[in-house]
C-alpha cells in the first residue's frame, strides 16, 4: 500500500441540521479510503438568526470544537483529524467572522457564498438571474479580499440557481475579472466534487473555469463536501485528473492555515 498523503478538506457534522452520521464515521471512511487526514468544516454560526435552520447555533460552537477534539483523540496515530470551518460570506458579516475565527485555532477555513440563503437572496436578487450571477462573482472576489478565508468553496455554485440561464461564455469577462482579483490575494479556491449531485451536474467549478484559474496560478484544494460519511473522499481521483487536464501539476491543502502542496501524480498514486 502506498503511504497516505491527501487530506479530505471539506466535510460536515450533524450540528448543521442537514448532515448525517457521527464524525467518527466520517473519519473511519477517510482512513479506509487511504487519506492521511480529514478536516471537519461544518457550517459556521451566523448572527441575527441568519440561515439558522442549516447551521449550528452560536452557543453550539463549543460543542463542535469538543466533538472534533474527541474524534481527533479516537483516531490519534491512525488519521490526522483537524478542526476547520465553512464560514458564509456576505458583505457586512466580516466582524462576526473575525471574532469567531479567533476563538480557537482552526486548521482550514472555507469561505462560502450560499446564494440560496433567504437573507442573501432577499438582499441581492433583483429579478435578473444574469445580474445575480454577476453579483455572485463580485462577492466571490470580495470574499478573497477580506482576508478571512484560506479557500473559496465551490466557487461557481451560482450555476445551480437556474442551470438553463448559465452561459459560461456570456459570464466569462465577469469571471475573469473576479479571478484576477482573487489571484492578487493568494487565496486558494476549491474543486468541490459534490457538484456532480447538484442541479447542474458537474464539479464546482467547471473545467472551463479551472483553466482560467490555472492561467492565474490560483492554488486549488479538493473537497468532497460530505454531508454523509459515505461521501468522504468521493470523486478525488476524478477531481485530480480534472485538475491535471486544466494544466495543474500540484494540488493544495491546509494545515494550521498554512498551504501545503502535493504533486498530482503522487496524490493519485497514494489513493491506490
Ligand atoms: Zn451543507
Ligand atoms: Zn460544505
Walk me through this protein's architecture.
This protein has 9 helices and 9 strands. It has helices at 23-32, 61-74, 94-102, 118-124, 129-145, 168-185, 207-215, 236-245, 264-270; strands spanning 7-8, 37-40, 80-88, 108-112, 151-152, 188-192, 220-223, 250-255, 258-263. The radius of gyration is 17 Å and the shape is globular. The longest helix has 18 residues, at 168-185. Helix 3 (94-102) links the parallel strand 3 (80-88) and strand 4. The model has no long low-confidence stretch (mean pLDDT 97). A 7-stranded parallel sheet has the order 1-2-3-4-5-6-7, covered by helices on one side. Strands 8-9 form a two-stranded antiparallel ribbon. 44% of the residues are buried. It is an alpha/beta fold. The structure holds zinc ion (2 copies). One zinc ion binds at residues 12, 16, 18, 43, 227. The site of one zinc ion (ZN) has 5 residues, from loops.
Radius of gyration: 17 Å
Low-confidence runs of at least 5 consecutive residues: none
Spatial sequence of strands, sheet with the most strands: 1-2-3-4-5-6-7
Report the biggest beta sheet as strand number plus sense, adding barrel if it closes: 7 strands, parallel
Content of β-strand: 15-25%
Series of secondary-structure elements, N-terminal to C-terminal = EHEHEHEHHEHEHEHEEH
How far is the first residue's CA from the last residue's CA? Answer: 7 Å
Distinct small molecules bound, one entry per kind: zinc ion
So what's the overall shape?
A: globular
Q: What structural category do the secondary elements indicate?
A: alpha/beta
Amino acid at each position: 500500500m502506498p503511504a497516505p498523503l491527501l487530506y479530505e478538506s471539506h466535510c460536515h457534522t450533524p450540528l448543521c441540521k442537514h448532515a448525517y452520521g457521527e464524525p467518527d464515521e466520517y473519519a473511519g471512511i477517510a482512513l479506509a479510503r487511504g487519506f492521511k487526514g480529514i478536516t471537519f468544516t461544518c457550517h459556521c454560526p451566523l448572527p441575527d438568526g441568519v440561515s439558522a435552520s442549516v447551521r449550528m447555533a452560536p452557543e453550539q460552537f463549543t460543542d463542535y470544537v469538543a466533538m472534533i477534539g474527541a474524534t481527533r483523540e479516537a483516531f490519534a496515530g491512525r488519521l490526522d483529524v483537524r478542526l476547520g470551518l465553512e464560514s458564509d460570506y456576505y458583505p457586512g458579516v466580516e466582524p462576526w467572522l473575525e471574532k469567531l475565527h479567533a476563538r480557537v485555532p482552526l486548521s482550514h477555513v472555507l469561505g462560502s457564498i450560499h446564494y440560496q440563503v433567504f437573507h442573501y437572496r432577499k438582499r441581492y436578487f433583483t429579478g435578473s438571474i444574469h445580474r445575480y450571477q454577476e453579483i455572485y462573482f463580485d462577492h466571490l472576489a470580495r470574499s478573497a479580499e477580506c482576508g478571512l478565508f484560506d479557500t473559496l468553496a465551490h466557487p461557481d455554485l451560482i450555476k445551480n440557481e437556474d442551470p438553463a440561464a448559465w452561459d459560461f461564455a456570456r459570464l466569462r469577462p465577469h469571471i475573469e475579472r473576479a479571478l484576477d482579483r482573487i489571484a492578487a490575494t493568494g487565496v486558494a479556491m476549491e474543486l468541490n466534487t459534490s457538484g456532480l449531485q447538484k442541479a447542474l451536474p458537474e464539479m464546482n467549478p467547471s473545467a472551463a473555469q479551472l483553466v482560467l484559474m490555472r492561467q492565474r496560478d490560483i492554488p486549488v484544494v479538493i473537497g468532497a463536501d460530505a454531508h454523509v460519511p459515505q461521501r468522504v473522499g468521493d470523486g478525488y481521483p476524478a477531481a485530480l485528473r480534472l485538475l491535471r487536464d486544466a494544466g495543474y501539476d500540484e494540488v493544495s491543502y491546509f494545515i494550521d492555515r498554512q498551504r501545503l502542496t502535493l504533486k498530482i501524480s503522487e496524490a493519485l498514486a497514494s489513493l491506490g
